[in-house]
């Protein structure tokens, strides 16, 4: 009987801690100024290095096959993390673009539509790239890569900066 009481008290304590954490996280996210604060910076140069086939060729030539497979898998995991980050940023930019399509200025509305199109395209490319990356994790010697995601992310960055300049010429927007 005492064990049951102790378990119930422990479960209630755990529930209270979880609810407190959840509510505090909700309050922190509701205090943000807008979706632009949700954009996570991404090291594009490091991502470019990961998707560069010349880097893979160099590692393939310099490392024993077993070491190359281990290094290649680590690089693929890092590549997957970058692709997920790019996908999350694209989701945020879709919301920003949708909010801006109703702008009175036709040039801003057109830039918002272009940003939304680019963000949707990047999201699709990210989904395909994740599948390719997980296949490459199973076969690390394959040449599957996420280069289209990098190119799409750079185009998305350009579109977001254009929209940001049109909406607020004094501020810059970088992703």
How would you concisely characterize the structure shown here?
The chain is an all-alpha fold.
Question: If you had to describe this structure to a student in words, what would you say it looks like?
Answer:
- By secondary structure, this protein is mostly helical.
- The chain folds into two domains: 1-31; 35-167.
- Helices cover 78% and strands 0% of the residues.
- The protein contains six helices and no strands.
- It has helices spanning 2-30, 44-51, 53-62, 65-100, 106-138, 147-167.
- The longest helix has 36 residues, at 65-100.
- The N and C termini lie far apart (58 Å).
What are the defining features of this structure?
single chain, about 180 residues, mainly alpha, 2 domains, about 0% strand, flat
Q: Write down the overall mean pLDDT.
A: 76
User: Which bin fits the share of residues in helices?
Assistant: over 70%
What's the number of domains? 2
- The proportion of residues in beta strands is under 5%
Termini separation (Å)? 58 Å
User: Could you describe the largest sheet, including whether it forms a barrel?
Assistant: none
CA-based gyration radius: 22 Å
Taking pLDDT < 50 over at least 5 consecutive residues as the criterion, the unreliable ranges are none
Would you tell me the structural class of the helices and strands? mainly alpha
Dominant shape: flat
Kindly state the number of beta strands: 0
User: How many DSSP H or I helices?
Assistant: 6
Order of helices and strands: HHHHHH
